[in-house]
Write a structure and sequence with these properties.
Structural class: mainly alpha
Number of strands: 0
Radius of gyration: 17 Å
Order of helices and strands: HHHHHHHH
Distance between the termini: 30 Å
Helix content: 55-70%
Number of helices: 8
């Protein structure tokens, strides 16, 4: 199971709750565009996360009625949902929202760093927390 940004999942759920399946008029591209926007991505930032061009994201959103199979797991992870939810086979349920979605997204990126880099980031966080205290 992939980790996900709870705020993203909640924004997506707010956008798509009550839409458990794709309708005949809803294409994969329009669903992807709604999910991207709800997750707080621009086409460019999503493209960077997926390692593709912004033009490909635009193509998938506007011209494609077939999902790019090789990108489905990465798209689902970026949006904080399952592949079945991405495809409209399952409803997207709301989740508790964290205080700072951007911070949570950055922490997911830190998780992907090599061990030494992760340790360095954690040391910086510890130093900042010690210096500024836990002011909630």
């Amino acid at each position: 199971m992939h980790s996900y940004d709870v705020a993203q999942a909640e924004r997506i759920a707010e956008t798509l709750v009550g839409r458990p399946k794709q309708t005949d008029s809803e294409t994969f591209g329009s669903r992807m565009a709604a999910l991207r926007a709800a997750a707080g991505y621009t086409q460019r930032s999503l493209a960077a996360e997926l390692g593709i061009s912004q033009r490909m994201v635009a193509y998938y959103e506007s011209q494609s009625d077939r999902p790019p199979a090789h990108l489905l797991p990465a798209l689902a992870e970026a949006f904080g949902i399952t592949v079945d939810q991405l495809l409209g086979r399952e409803p997207i349920s709301p989740r508790k929202r964290p205080v700072n979605a951007q911070l949570m997204r950055k922490l997911r990126q830190v998780e992907k760093l090599p061990p030494r880099a992760r340790t360095a980031v954690l040391e910086h966080i510890d130093a900042l927390v010690s210096k500024h205290g836990n002011r909630g």
